Automatic annotation (TrEMBL):
Pfam families: adh_short (PF00106). This is 3-oxoacyl-ACP reductase. Belongs to the short-chain dehydrogenases/reductases (SDR) family. Keywords: Oxidoreductase. It comes from the Bacteria. InterPro entries: KR_dom, NAD(P)-bd_dom_sf, Peroxisomal_Beta-Oxidation, SDR_fam. The keyword Cytoplasm does not apply. SMART domains: PKS_KR (SM00822). PANTHER family: DEHYDROGENASES, SHORT CHAIN (PTHR45024), SCP2 DOMAIN-CONTAINING PROTEIN (PTHR45024:SF2). GO terms for molecular function: oxidoreductase activity. Residues 8-199 form the Ketoreductase domain.
Amino acid sequence: MTISFEGQVAIVTGAGNGLGRSHALALAQRGAKVVVNDLGGTRDGSGASSEAAEEVVRLIQENGGEAFAHGANVAKFDEVSEMVDQAMSRWGRVDILINNAGILRDKTFAKMDLSDFQLVMDVHVMGTVNCTKAVWEIMRQQNYGRIVVTTSSSGMYGNFGQSNYGAAKMAVLGLMNTLVLEGAKNDIRVNALAPTAGTRMTEDLLPPEMFGLLTTESVTAGALTLCHKDAPSRMILCAGAGGYASTRLFETDGIFLPEDQQTPEKVLAHWDDICDTQHQTALESGAKQTEKFLTKAMSFVQSNS
Ligand code: NAI
């Protein structure tokens, strides 16, 4: 099966550099018209320049594709809205949104100013929310949409010095989980990409010999599987150096304790059973967890009445 984006319109945020650039080029190469968004600041989010995004547009156009650059700061809803309006007036639809823009402000939590925490949350979380909000109604009206959020192993598993970034990267998964449910009836599918790539974001964190293996193209191959016509929904795809894996959140079956045993000592006494992964499942929604607990409690009540 060949994956084609012919006739589709895609917005890729933070597409002037690194992964976003690679996603934008690949989407265009496979037929999509692309909005190349980039604020053009430095890695820590300061400054702005249109140069990098314009260069990506030039490359796309050289290859016969269609694209325009837009310097919207994803953390500002009015700028994002203006960008989406431009895409709509040029091309009349938005099929794909890849929320990729990101910055780093690493410090241990003890040394981190709250302003550095806030800015990282603004770009990654509110940036993703703003862009998604700006296309959501369009996708609902079209009965079609593919949205990718960009998470990170730092959020899913933690990383020293990245409490702000980790919190933000986990937050976008929370957003995805609910959008998956709310978007389903209009064929809006939402997935997450957890990349590892050699970019300016990671250049001083990775040894040079590894940098060459961690190509952006290897990650983009995964990203495209999350936003094509037959894409899944709620997938967390991890991709790096040609490796592809999936992360899922599972919950153990757990135990039930009747009222007279609901003490911390009894909970602790059942720790191994609570943590027993043998019958773990990935729940479809928060309500399914309540249902699971109530089913156990009700059956106890019934068997004792
Ligand atoms: P990068 O620094 O090369 O590219 C990020 C781009 O986002 C830059 O061009 C920057 O100008 C743009 N940007 C930043 N703030 C923006 C804003 N407010 N509005 C619009 N554009 C903005 O970084 P890289 O590595 O390509 O990262 C892309 C995404 O992948 C980020 O969300 C990052 O957190 C995520 N990621 C990257 C990993 C890696 O190994 N490179 C690991 C895990 C996640």
